[in-house]
From TrEMBL:
Source species taxonomy: Bacteria, Pseudomonadati, Pseudomonadota, Gammaproteobacteria, Chromatiales
Limits of the PAS domain: 17-87, 312-350
Domain PAC: 90-142, 378-430
Alphabetical list of NCBIfam families matching this protein: GGDEF (TIGR00254), sensory_box (TIGR00229)
Domain named GGDEF: residues: 463-596
Name recorded for this polypeptide: PAS domain S-box-containing protein/diguanylate cyclase (GGDEF) domain-containing protein
Domain of life: Bacteria
Cofactor requirement: Mg(2+)
GO molecular function: catalytic activity
Length: 596
C-alpha cells in the first residue's frame, strides 16, 4: 500500500470527487458522516443535521456523541474506535436524539475510505432510522415471552406487568397501565402499572365505567380510543384532574381491549408528563400491545377453565356427553355439537367410538376402562375426530356416576379443547430446536442426534457414521457487497440445496454464520460417503445474482468417521471435521477433505 502524499492534480481531483459525493448524499434519505485520518468526524450531510437539529460545527469532532443515548454511548464509541484502529468496516445500532427530543434507533454502517493510490483517508458512515424495525423486534420478542409465560401458567398480573414494562421501554417518557373490566361490567380494576407514580396508582385501583370517568372509564364505556392531550383542560378528567397534575401527569390516551367476541375486557392507557397528542406510530404500537393484552387475558382465562374442568358440572362451557353403562350416548350439551359438529339427534344411542381419531392404540382404551372400573375416574389427553373428519385434541375427564340402585352406572365425559395450546407448545418447541432463518436443526439437536447415531454404531459395529463440517466459500464477500438480506437468502438456499443431497435418516444442522454440519448414518465404509459429498459440492457450486455483479460460490467440507480406534465424543468428532474443512479451504476450496 502506497503512503505518498497526493500530487496537487490528484488532490484537486480528490477534492472535486469529495464535493460531488457530498452534493449527492445531501439529497438522499440516509444520514451520512465522514471522518479524517485522526478519527474525528469532519462532515455530516444535511439529512443528519436536519435529524439532530444541530449545526455542522456542533457535530464535528466528537460533538456528535452528545446526541447518543447515555446507555449506548460507551458501546458506540468503542465499536467505532476499534474498527478505526483496524481499518475494518463496522455496523452498529444505537439511539440518537431527534430534534424533537425523542431518541430514535439508528443503524450505522461505516467503511474505511482510500484514495486511488491506496492511501487511508478516514471513514464514511451511512445511517438509517430503524426505529420501526426495533419496535417490531421488541413486540415480537415480547409476544414470544408472553406466550411462554402463558404456557408456564404464570399469574395474569405477572404477564400484564411484562407487557406494561415492554411498552414503557419502547415509548420515550411515558407510563403504562392496564385496567381489567370486572365481572359486573361497571368497574375497572388495576391489572398492572409498574411505572405509574404511586399517588396516582391509588386513584386507578378501581375506576367506574362511564363517560367522563377519565380516559379509561370513558374508553371502556364507549368502546373506542379516548385521547386527553391536556388533562388540565379535558372535560373527562374533572374528577381525576388534581390527582393527575399533582403527580406530574399531563396527558393520557386509553385504548379499549376487546376479546374475540368483540366485547371490552380491559383498557390499555399511556400517560405522559407533558401535554400532547400521540403520533401514528405510537398509536400503532399501543394497538399491538392491546392485542397482546387480549391474548394474555384470554389465554389465562382459558387455562383457568381447564383447571376447573375436572369438576364436570362446573365446566358447562366444555363439551359434555353422558352414556349408559354399555357406552351408548344418552345426551350431549350444545358445546358438544359446537366442538364435534355432531347434532344431538344424530348421536343419541350411538357409541362414542364415532369420535375415535385412529391415533391411539387399543392399549390406551384398555387402560381407560381399567381405571374406570377400579377408581371410577379417568382423565388425560385424547385426540378425537369431528363430523367433518378434522381432528382435535381434548383434555378428557370421564367419571362414573352410580345409578339409584348402585349398579346401573352412567358415565359423564367432559371434553376441553386444547388443540390450540398443543399447537402453540409444538411451535415453541420447534423454535427452540431449530434455526429461525433456515429452519434447520440447531447445534443442540445436532449434538443429540450425533450421540444417538454413535450409540447405534456401538450396537451395530458393521455400520459407520460420517460427520460433515461445511463452510460456504465467498459468503463474507456476498454479505459485505450485497447486504445481510442477500446473505440470508444465500444461507436459506444453501440449506435447501444441501438437504436435498442427503438421504432419509441423515441430518443437516446450521451451527451459526455460514457453518453447517451433517450426520450421515448407516454407512458401510468411507467410500459410501463420496457420492453424497460430490452431490453437495455440485449443489453449492453456482452464482448468486444480487445486484449489478455476481459472486461465484462453493462449499468446503471436512469429514470424519465413527467409530474410531481411540475413544471420541461428539465434540471430538466435530473438531476433527472442522480441522479437515480448513485443510479443504487451504487446498483451494470447493472440495472435501477426510480427517486422517
Amino acid at each position: 500500500m502506497s503512503h505518498r502524499h497526493p500530487d496537487p492534480p490528484d488532490l484537486e481531483a480528490l477534492q472535486e470527487s469529495e464535493s460531488r459525493l457530498r452534493a449527492l448524499v445531501d439529497g438522499g434519505p440516509a444520514l451520512i458522516w465522514t471522518s479524517g485520518t485522526d478519527g474525528q468526524c469532519d462532515w455530516f450531510n444535511r439529512v443528519w443535521l436536519a435529524f439532530t437539529g444541530r449545526t455542522l460545527e456542533e457535530e464535528r469532532g466528537y460533538g456528535w456523541t452528545a446526541g447518543v443515548h447515555p446507555d449506548d454511548l460507551g458501546r458506540c464509541v468503542e465499536t467505532y474506535t476499534q474498527a478505526f484502529e483496524r481499518r475494518e468496516p463496522f455496523s452498529m445500532d444505537y439511539r440518537l436524539r431527534h430534534h424533537s427530543g425523542e431518541y430514535r434507533w439508528i443503524q450505522d454502517d461505516g467503511q474505511p475510505r482510500y484514495s486511488p493510490h491506496g492511501e487511508f483517508l478516514g471513514y464514511i458512515g451511512h445511517c438509517l432510522d430503524i426505529t420501526r424495525r426495533k419496535h417490531a423486534e421488541t413486540i415480537n420478542r415480547l409476544h414470544g415471552q408472553v406466550l411462554q409465560q402463558v404456557l408456564d401458567r404464570a399469574a395474569l398480573p405477572e404477564i400484564l406487568d411484562s407487557i406494561a414494562r415492554g411498552i414503557e421501554h419502547l415509548l420515550d417518557d411515558c407510563w403504562a397501565s392496564i385496567e381489567l373490566l370486572e365481572t359486573d361490567g361497571r368497574h375497572l380494576h388495576l391489572g398492572a402499572a409498574p411505572g405509574l407514580p404511586q399517588g396516582f396508582r391509588r386513584v386507578c385501583q378501581r375506576i367506574p365505567v362511564g363517560e367522563g370517568n377519565g380516559a379509561c372509564g370513558t374508553a371502556a364505556a364507549l368502546g373506542r380510543r379516548v385521547i386527553a392531550a391536556d388533562i388540565a383542560t379535558h372535560p373527562h378528567w374533572q374528577d381525576f384532574r388534581q390527582d393527575a397534575l399533582r403527580e406530574g401527569i399531563a396527558a393520557c390516551w386509553s385504548e379499549p381491549v376487546f376479546d374475540s367476541r368483540g366485547q371490552v375486557i380491559a383498557t390499555f392507557a399511556i400517560y405522559r408528563p407533558s401535554p400532547g397528542q400521540p403520533d401514528a406510530a405510537e398509536i400503532q404500537t399501543v394497538e399491538a400491545f392491546s392485542n397482546l393484552t387480549r391474548l394474555a387475558i384470554e389465554q389465562c382465562r382459558q387455562q383457568q377453565r381447564l383447571v376447573l374442568s375436572d369438576t364436570v358440572f362446573h365446566a358447562a362451557g366444555d363439551a359434555i356427553f353422558v352414556t349408559d353403562g354399555s357406552g351408548r350416548i344418552l345426551d350431549v350439551n350444545p358445546a358438544f355439537t359446537a366442538l364435534t359438529g355432531h347434532r344431538r339427534e344424530a348421536v343419541l344411542g350411538q357409541d362414542p367410538s364415532l369420535l375415535k381419531s385412529g391415533r391411539h392404540g387399543p392399549e390406551v382404551y384398555a387402560a381407560l376402562w381399567r381405571a374406570l372400573r377400579e377408581t371410577g375416574e379417568w382423565q388425560g389427553e385424547l385426540w378425537s375426530r369431528r363430523r367433518d373428519g378434522s381432528l382435535f385434541a381434548a383434555h378428557t375427564v370421564i367419571r362414573a356416576v352410580p345409578g339409584s340402585d348402585g349398579e346401573d352406572r352412567r358415565y359423564v365425559v367432559v371434553l376441553s379443547d386444547i388443540t390450540e395450546r398443543l399447537a402453540l407448545e409444538a411451535r415453541l418447541e420447534h423454535s427452540a430446536s431449530h434455526d429461525p432463518l433456515t429452519d434447520l436443526p440447531n447445534r443442540a439437536v445436532f449434538q443429540d442426534r450425533l450421540q444417538q447415531a454413535m450409540a447405534h454404531c456401538d450396537r451395530q459395529p458393521e455400520q459407520q457414521v460420517a460427520v460433515l463440517f461445511m463452510d460456504l466459500d465467498g459468503f463474507k464477500t456476498v454479505n459485505d457487497r450485497y447486504g445481510h438480506a442477500a446473505g440470508d437468502r444465500l444461507l436459506v438456499a444453501a440449506g435447501r440445496g444441501i438437504s436435498a443431497c442427503l438421504r432419509q435418516g441423515d441430518t443437516l444442522a446450521r451451527l451459526g454464520g455460514d457453518e453447517f454440519a451433517g450426520i450421515l448414518v448407516d454407512l458401510e465404509g468411507p467410500e459410501a460417503v463420496r457420492p453424497i459429498l460430490e452431490r453437495i459440492l455440485t449443489a453449492c457450486r453456482g452464482v448468486l445474482q444480487s445486484g449489478p455483479g455476481a459472486e461465484a460460490l462453493s462449499v468446503s467440507i471436512g469429514v470424519t468417521f465413527y467409530p474410531q480406534d481411540a475413544p471420541v465424543d461428539t465434540d471430538d468428532l466435530l473438531r476433527q471435521a472442522d480441522n479437515a474443512m480448513y485443510r479443504a479451504k487451504q487446498a483451494g476450496r470447493d472440495r472435501y477433505c477426510l480427517h486422517t
